[in-house]
Model the fold of this input.
Amino acid sequence: MVLAAVLSAGLALPATAQPAPPAPGVPVEEVTLFTRGAAPGELLLVSVNRRAGAAAPTGTFRGRPLVFYATRAGDWAALASIDLDTPTGPAPLELTLNGPGGPRPWSRAVMVAPKDFPRRELRVDDRYVRLSPEDAARVAREQARTAALYATAGPVPLYDGRFATPIPGAPASRFGERRVFNGVPKDPHSGADLRAAEGEPVRAAAAGRVALAGDLFYSGNTVILDHGLGLYTLYAHLSRIGVVEGQAVPARAVIGRVGRTGRVTGPHLHWGVKAGGDRVDPFSLTALPLENYLP
Done:
């Protein structure tokens, strides 16, 4: 369940707190955060009340710029993220609100809570653990390409509602697991593995544009959708890709089929999310009420 923290003048509540209703005469809240909880791998929706300013606010979270857009209700909204490796402690949210009286600063600290991730050992084809020089060069090229892709942020959302899981079923492996392949520690799991039979249709979690569709070394047949605002969803290990790069896809459109390509132990869907380049738990995205904050 998503939690909202209301942050008003002279008041700062933890992002996991439920605010009490305002008493009569208390100023209208200016900034609201929606999140499952402030922890590594979580996504936040930052909403600025339209009474705080008719012009778009600007600001940063954790020192990184936020991209605000106007919602249908006349408010302002932006997405903020906490990467998987973010240390615990205060994360500054610093805004400039552009009200009738001119710009004025607004800042609060969001406390990032500690989070433990399990360790898991897996056996895969050894070529995916001890890379040949050719495969290592290929991985470097692919990582440079995807890093440049994730660094690109469109100014408005391309999604048109709440995000949904791309296939039904429970996760077989969760976000953030510390993984050991064939006895060799590797990077933490940056997505969720969803159980599915080979050939099961994979659907777009939300409307977007196909930013990448092709075969990558680790993730096999892969589709990456751009949803605007630096928000991307990734669908990996597909048996078949059903879209082409540059194609606009509506929410729930079939974009491929479950498979076992790349570094896998069997057929499944690896579903990942990147927000501003940060590794984010995809289920933190589905928890946000984005359908209420559309442009």
About this structure: The longest strand covers residues 89-99. Confidence is low (pLDDT under 50) at residues 6-28.
